[in-house]
Amino acid sequence: MLIDSGVQDTFAPEDGLLAAARAAREFAQAPYSRFKVGAALETVEGVLVTGCNIENATYGLTLCAERVALVKALSDGVNVFTRIAVVADTQAPTPPCGPCRQLLWEYCGDIEILLGNLQALTGRYRLSSLLPLPFDRRLL
């Protein structure tokens, strides 16, 4: 479910989340795909934890920007989150991949996901709309 069907023309200056994701993208290690992604995860206290994708020659060991941000936050003892922004240099929204959706659900719950490119917000979703039937501890 799309939260806001209208997208804004540019990044709102007051929304540091998208700007932080865009800045994090610059640190991406993407020598093989050249597809750089940045993410910024917002804690309940308003702290932003960023991540970028880090590729590996085997591709199977590649880390997505969303997972890097999440693991950084969790490893510092932060475990309550409100939103995440994901930015890539694409026209269409670039949502988190399946494994990222699963980990975000497990550790963040039904958070808001902002998707953007280098110029604008391209989508705003709840995680439950991107992962409608999650596998989680309720099923164990």
Written account of the structure:
Strand 3, helix 3 (98-108) and strand 4 (112-116) form a beta-alpha-beta unit. The model is unreliable at 1-11 (pLDDT under 50). This protein is an alpha+beta fold and 140 residues long. Strands 2-1-3-4-5 form a 5-stranded mixed β-sheet. The protein has 4 helices and 5 strands. It has helices at 16-25, 65-75, 98-108, 127-130; strands at residues 37-43, 48-52, 81-88, 112-116, 121-126. The radius of gyration is 14 Å and the shape is globular. The longest helix is centred in the middle third of the chain and has 11 residues, at 65-75.
Number of strands: 5
Strand-residue proportion: 15-25%
Number of helices: 4
Question: Biggest sheet, open or closed, and with what strands and sense?
Answer: 5 strands, mixed
Helix fraction?
25-40%
Q: Estimate the global geometry from the Cα principal axes.
A: globular
Cα gyration radius (Å): 14 Å
Element-level helix/strand string: HEEHEHEEH
Order of strands across the widest beta sheet? 2-1-3-4-5
Cα distance spanning the termini: 27 Å
Give the overall average pLDDT: 90
Structural class estimated from helices and strands: alpha+beta
Q: Low-confidence spans: pLDDT under 50, at least 5 residues? A: 1-11
